[in-house]
Amino acid sequence: MLNIVEAIKQKYEANKCPAIPSTRPEFQLFFNDLVTNDFNTLFKSLPEDRDYFVAGVPGSFLDRIFPESSLHFVYTSHSLHWLFKLPAELEEENSPAWNKGRVHYTNAPDDVADAYKSQFCEEVRKFLDARAKELVGGGMLVIIMSGTPVDLPLSSTANGKMFEFMASTLMEMVREGLIKESQVDSFNLPLYQSASPEEIVDIVERNGCFSIERLELSKPSSWLKGAAVDVPAWMMHARAAMEGNFIKHFGSNEVVDEVFKRLTKKHLDHSELLPQWCNQDVQLFIVLKRKKIISM
Amino acid sequence: MLNIVEAIKQKYEANKCPAIPSTRPEFQLFFNDLVTNDFNTLFKSLPEDRDYFVAGVPGSFLDRIFPESSLHFVYTSHSLHWLFKLPAELEEENSPAWNKGRVHYTNAPDDVADAYKSQFCEEVRKFLDARAKELVGGGMLVIIMSGTPVDLPLSSTANGKMFEFMASTLMEMVREGLIKESQVDSFNLPLYQSASPEEIVDIVERNGCFSIERLELSKPSSWLKGAAVDVPAWMMHARAAMEGNFIKHFGSNEVVDEVFKRLTKKHLDHSELLPQWCNQDVQLFIVLKRKKIISM
C-alpha cells in the first residue's frame, strides 16, 4: 500500500501546475477483511508516524462495503482466487462433481473443475459489480492473484503438484488408519488457481464498467532461489494459508502437523523437478480502470 | 448513531424536491477509539442486516484522523471529559498541585483544579482544531459530556461526592495497611467534570470555526428511579469506566474489589441524600456547526 501512496504522490508532484500554489494531497487507506480477521493486531502494527489516515472495514468484498463513487484506487493481492464458498455439487456424494480421493480440481474430472470455475466466475462477477459502484469514474482497480495460461494444465504447476501430493498424503494416512476415507472425499480446498487472461477478459467485458489497462501473467518465483527451491519456506507459507481449512475439516492440529511433515518430505524427494514446476507463469497482474460515469 | 442516521434520512425525505427522481442517501459510519480498543468485538457486534457502511478508525481524536472536509456529522458521547493525560504538576511531590489524600480535584486547592482545567482546555482546543479541518462547511459536531453550571461546586454533585468517598475509602485502606499513603497521594483520576457553558463558549470562540447551535445543561438522572437511586447499577457503571485506572495504579484486582465494595456501602449509607446529589444539571449537550469554508 505504501508503494501505491508513494507512486500517486510522485505522479501528483510531477503533474501539478506550477502556477497554482502547492497543496499536499491527503490519503485515507481502508483495510478490508472478513469480520473474523484480527483488526486489533492490524491497527497496532501500523507505523505511528504515518502520513496517511487509516480505517478498517469489516465484511466480504463480494458485497458493497463502501459508498457509491467514494474510492479512487482499490488494490487486492492474493485474495480473489480464494472462493468464499465451495460449489454445492462438491458436497453431494451422488453428484458427478463428488471429488473422491482429491482435495482440489487438479487432475479431477471436468465436472469438478467446471464447478470450481462457475463458483469463481460468480464471485468475481459480484466483486466487480460492487467495485464498479464504489469506484469513481477513472478510478483504478489493481488485482494480483493466481492464474495460468489457458493451455497450461494446473497439474504441471507447483501448486497443482502440491495439491496432488496433499491428496496422496491424505490417502496414505487413510491406509494407516489415521483418518477416514470419507473425510478425504469430502475435503476440498476453496482455491481457484487457473484463471486465464481470456477468462478475466470475458468476466470484465460482461461487467462492462471497466477498461483493461494491463493484463499479464508472470512468474511469482518466490520460492526459487537461483536454481533451487526453498521447500521449508514454501511449505510454511502454504500451511499458513491453508491450515485453517484443514483444522476445520479434520478437527485436529496433529493431522495438520502430519500432513505438512509428509508434504515437505514429498517435495524434498522431488527437488530436482521443483525448479521446473515453479518456473511457470502462474501470477495474474490485472489493472482495470473504471469507465467514466455519465449521469443521466 | 442509528438515531442520527434515521433523523438525517427523515430530514432528507422531508426536504427533497418532488421534481427530481428519488435517490436514497448512503451512510458511512466511522467508529473511532484509541488503538487499544477492541475493534474486533465492535465489528462482530454490528447488525448484519445494516443499511449503512462501517469502518473503524484507530487513534486519538485530539489529532487529525480523517482527511480534510470529509465528514458531515461528528458525534461524541461521554468521552471529551476524559483527559488523555494528567497535568504534569499533579505528579510532582513539591508542586502546589500535589494532590495529597485525594483522587480528583473535587475539594482540592485551586492549584489542583486549575491544573485539571488547563489540561482540559488544551485537549478540547486540539479536538476542535482537528474536527474543524475534517468537517465540511455546514457540518455538525454534537458533543455530550459532563459539565456543571459555573456556580455549582463539584462537591455538591453526585460525581463530586463519589470522588470524596473514593478518597476517604482509600485513606481508610491506608490506615488498615492495605495500600500505601504515597499510592493514594499520587493517584488522580483523569476526569474533568465541571466544564461550564461559559468555558465551552470561550473555547469555541477562540477556535473560531464553529457557530454554537445549542448549548444546554441537563440532568442525566440515569440512576434516579422515581425518588430512589439505583446504587448498585451506578457503582457498576462507575467501576466499568474507572477500574482500568485503579488497576494500572494499584496493580491488583483485589484492591479494586475492596474499593468498590466499600464505595457502594458508603453510598447506600447516604441513600437519603443521593436523590438531591443526583438531581443536578451535570450533563452538557453541545451542538456546533462548522462555519462555511471560504476558499481563497
Describe the protein.
Two copies of one chain form a homodimer. By secondary structure, chain A is of the alpha/beta class. Chain A has a single domain (60-290), classed as 3-Layer(aba) Sandwich (Rossmann fold). The first copy, chain A, has nine helices and eight strands. Chain A has helices spanning 2-15, 39-45, 110-134, 158-175, 181-185, 197-207, 231-250, 253-269, 274-278; strands spanning 28-33, 53-58, 71-77, 135-146, 210-218, 224-225, 228-229, 283-290. In chain A, the strands form three sheets. The first copy, chain A, has a four-stranded mixed sheet with strand order 3-4-8-5. In chain A, helix 3 packs across helix 6 and helix 4 (158-175) crosses helix 8. The two termini of chain A are 35 Å apart.
Q: Biggest β-sheet of chain A, characterized?
A: 4 strands, mixed
Please give the CATH architecture of chain A.
3-Layer(aba) Sandwich
CATH fold node name of chain A: Rossmann fold
* Main CATH class of chain A: Alpha Beta
- The pLDDT mean of chain A sits at 92
Percent strand of chain A: 15-25%
* Helix share bin of chain A: 40-55%
Biggest interface, residues from each chain: A-B, 24 and 24 residues
Walk across the major sheet of chain A and give the strand order. Answer: 3-4-8-5
Structural class of chain A: alpha/beta
**Number of H- or I-type helical stretches of chain A:** 9
Distance between the termini of chain A: 35 Å
The secondary-structure element order of chain A is HEHEEHEHHHEEEHHHE
Total tally of structural domains of chain A? 1
Strand segment tally of chain A = 8
So what's the overall shape of chain A? Answer: globular
Unreliable stretches covering 5 or more consecutive residues of chain A? none
The radius of gyration over CA of chain A amounts to 21 Å
Assembly level = homodimer
Organism (chains A, B): Morus notabilis
GO molecular function, one term (chains A, B): metal ion binding
Protein name (chains A, B): Putative S-adenosylmethionine-dependent methyltransferase
InterPro entries (chains A, B): MeTrfase_7 (IPR005299), MeTrfase_capping (IPR042086), SAM-dependent_MTases_sf (IPR029063)
